[in-house]
Each structure stands twice: as structure tokens, then as C-alpha cells.
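tool_call predict_complex ligand=oxa(dethia)-CoA
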Amino acid sequence: MESEVKRIFIKSTGSYLPEGVITNQDVAKLIHTSDEWIKTRTGVEERRRALPDQAASDLALEASKKAMKEAGVTAEDLDLIVMATITPDTHCPAGANWLEAKLGAARAVSFDVTAACSGFIFGLSVAEKFMKVDGQRYVLVAASEVMTRVQDWTDRKNCILWGDGAGAVVLSTEPGGHEVVATHLHTDGEGGKTLLMPGGGSATTPITHESVDEKRHTLKMLRGNESFRVAVNRFAESCLEAVEGQGISLSDVKLIIPHQANLRIIQAFAKKLGVSMERVVVNINKYGNISSATVPIALDEAAHSGRIEKGEWVILVAFGGGLTWGSALIRW
Ligand code: UT7
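tool_result ok
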């Protein structure tokens, strides 16, 4: 029987950043670069690093526990767990299965969503649709990445960008939270070849000494400049699409919370849209690019720093490998 559920709410948010800090000065000990270059070209000042025994599900666990505590939701209450990640603990079981076990969420169904830096928005959209069809009452959407572990620390055009961390939200069908009004998702498989992790999948298995020596298991950004330009356009288009047909315009939106890929990308798309940077959340200076986890971490920080008041409009927006991009419009 089709569910009667029409509205989905974010009940709470949580995030977790591991304690280890890698400064630009630390990076400059590994490769020929400087704090000045990294700050000017990317906005990153430092990034976090997970402990050797912390995998993606461990970071997600901490973020999820915070969100669940705030929502007053226990592990037994969870019906569904969606985890966005491109750095799962293992490819099988899925990262979400590990998280389910660590939470003790025995009733929940759990699975991963893979959409690189847009992963959280894809996960949110999938969860929202599940809830509208099947009527699940409490759903956890987590995004978690250990990006420092998939870097080629000799690739100076890329390794400077990335960090580790996790964010999570509890969704509910109960009114009273922050409504997920609309989500929009897009992909372009043809464009995906410029931002990829070639090793570890069936195209390169079995993993050989040779594939490891060639660092095929690490993240490659082949034409960063090109990606940069595409990203600016996709971010801008997605923000416009988020408000389209909703009876509001961008000037009614209190806060845009973008994926933190590069400060210059964020500034460029905000300028293109004529949106002042005061209405755009930036934390790339502290954490770098944490792929799927940047959006829920920035959302959690904005929510808990009093930057959003009840009833205000918020856009979550991301672009990443795949290529993938999309938005979520939230009524806070
Ligand atoms: O999250 C998913 C989406 N992310 C993206 O789409 C990322 C988009 N791309 C970017 O953020 C930027 O393109 C990068 C940060 C990856 C690179 O910045 P850029 O301003 O595009 O630099 P570039 O690759 O054009 O390189 C400019 C110069 C080059 O020197 P020459 O050839 O002009 O002499 C590089 O060799 O900067 C040099 N360079 C560096 N110098 C010092 C590149 N990396 C470094 C470095 N330190 N780390």
C-alpha cells in the first residue's frame, strides 16, 4: 500500500572531525609547495586526519551518535541507514553495514550511496524518496570519508586539498523539524574520467604490486582547471534549480551551504549568482575537501552556530566525481 507521507523533516544534525591535524606546513614537508600557494589557490589552511584504526564507519558512528542524541532517537528506532562514501571501510560489506553493526541498529536496513562529493545530497534524496513511498519513521543519513588515505602524497596538484571527517542527519516523518522541500540530482558519466580513483575496482583487480606501485588506488584529478570551470557552472545552475517552481527566488534564501571543493570555486559561483559571501557557508580553511562529508559538516556547524533561524530557506549544493551534482532545498 502506498504511504500517505508527503513531508520529510531533518530532525537533527551531527558531525565529527578526527583530532589529527595536517597543516599546510606539514604538507610542504612532503611536496614542493607552500602555505601561501595552498591558501591562495584553494583556501585550505589545514585538514583533519583519522587515526590509523579509524575507518569511515567509525567517523560516521561519532557523527551519527551526536545527531541521534539531539533527535532523541535510539539505534532501535532507526528504520533505514543510508551512508554516502567513496572511502568505505570495505567494498563488501558496505560502509553502512559496518555502521549499522556499530550502532546496534538491528531493525534498520542499510546501504551505501556512491556519488563522490555530491554523495550526501544523493543519500538525502534517496532517503527522502524511500520515506515518501515506504513511510519509514526514522532514517539516518550519514556521509563519511577518509580521504587522506587515498592520496598520492607526491601529487602536489591534488593531495593538498583533502581531509577526513563525517556528518549525519536524522530524518523523520514527524512534523517539527526542518523540511526537505525538494532535491535535484544530476550525473554525467562521460565527464567522469577527469576525477577518479582507478584502482580497487573490477577494472584493475586483482590488485597487483604493479598497480600499487603505479598508485592506481589513489585519487586522480586529471584536469583540475577544467573541473574548476565545470564546477562553478554546475554549482550556480543547481542553486537556481533549487528555488525554481518553489515560489521563491535566490534572494529569499538565507544560507547556501556548498560542497567545499575550493574556496575560489565557491567565490566564483556566488559572484555569478550575485550572492554575497555572507550568505555562503565556508569552512574549507579548517577541513579541506572531505568529499561527501563536507555538506553535512557545514550544515551541522551552521545549525549549531545560530546562522539559521526557524522558517528560513537553506540550499545544500554539491558537485563532484562521476560527474555528479545536485541540490536540496530546506525550509529551516
Ligand atoms: O570536490 C570535487 C570537485 N573538485 C574540483 O573540481 C577541483 C577543481 N580544481 C581545483 O580546485 C584546482 O584546479 C586545483 C586546486 C586542483 C589546482 O589549482 P589551479 O589554480 O587550477 O592550479 P593549476 O593546476 O593551474 O597550476 C598552476 C600552477 C602550475 O605551475 P605552472 O605550470 O603554471 O608553472 C602548477 O605546477 O601551480 C603549480 N602548482 C603548485 N604550486 C605549488 C600546482 N600545485 C601546486 C602546489 N604548490 N601544491
